[in-house]
Design brief:
Blueprint lengths: L12 H9 L3 E2 L1 E7 L2 E7 L3 E4 L4 E7 L5 H4 L5 E5 L5 H8 L11 E3 L5 E3 L4 E13 L2 E13 L6 E4 L2 E4 L13 E2 L2 E2 L8 H11 L1
Antiparallel strand pairs: 1-11, 2-3, 2-6, 4-5, 5-10, 6-9, 7-8, 9-10, 11-12, 13-14
The structure holds flavin mononucleotide.
Flavin mononucleotide binds next to strand 3, strand 5 and helix 3.
């Protein structure tokens, strides 16, 4: 169902950008080799969507000069950037001809471009494009997942990069259910298992 859009006279773009920036996210490289040409962007709009079937999404600006080429890819690689990838992220968002210069990556047989030092990788194909205002929501089917050499993810928050302080996460305080997965409230005899459950649910 499409809900009619409303505009508020008090909702200026700066206010909206600040509000969107309050939500922290990871950053991914979305990249492919199309007809022998490397193409891709950095994107913080990546999110998991469905387990069955396995689906993920990201949003891309309708003004993107990369999307017309990237959308032609048979397979698209998603690489979750690691916390040492701040410079890499800026490079992937910078001038198109320099985006992959000096980066360690591999191109799969299907044309997905996956960064070596990512925290995780997804080999995907584009399933649907959904117009959404000044962006297109790109729904991707996941065919394969992998782990990279990276350990901790890069975090993007309020237009700046940050690191995740895992030590601050206390799984015992995650009561109830998250994303449909039962999260133990800390009553288990096995704290290590609790921690794992919380990670699964995240
Ligand atoms: C941290 C970060 C996150 C970004 N996330 C997105 C995103 O989710 N969607 C998007 O369209 N562009 C995003 N960009 C911008 C793109 O990486 C890229 O700079 C932009 O698409 C312009 O390049 P193009 O014309 O080649 O597409 C992001 C940039 C940075 C630095």
């Amino acid at each position: 169902m499409t809900v009619p859009s409303t505009t508020s006279p008090t909702l200026d773009q700066r206010t909206l950008r600040d509000a969107f920036g309050a939500f922290p996210s990871g950053v991914v490289a979305v990249a492919a080799s199309v007809k022998g040409q490397l193409t891709g962007i950095a994107a913080s709009s990546f999110t998991s969507v469905s387990i069955e079937p396995p689906l993920v999404s990201f949003s891309i600006s309708t003004s993107s000069s990369t999307w017309p080429q990237l959308r032609e890819a048979d397979r698209v690689g998603i690489s979750v950037l690691a916390d040492h990838h701040d410079v890499v992220c800026r490079q992937l968002a910078g001038p198109r001809e320099e985006r992959f210069a000096g980066l360690p990556f591999k191109v799969t047989g299907n044309g997905s471009v996956l960064l070596d030092e990512a925290v995780a990788t997804y080999d995907c194909s584009i399933r649907e494009e959904i117009g959404a205002g000044d962006h297109v929501i790109v729904l991707l089917e996941v065919h394969e997942v992998g782990g990279g050499d990276g350990e901790h993810p890069l975090v993007f928050h309020r237009s700046a990069f940050a690191k995740l302080h895992r030590d601050d996460l206390d799984p015992a305080r995650l009561d109830g259910r998250i994303n449909g997965a039962e999260v133990d409230g800390g009553s288990s005899d096995s704290p290590a298992q609790d921690h794992h459950d919380a990670e699964d649910a995240a």
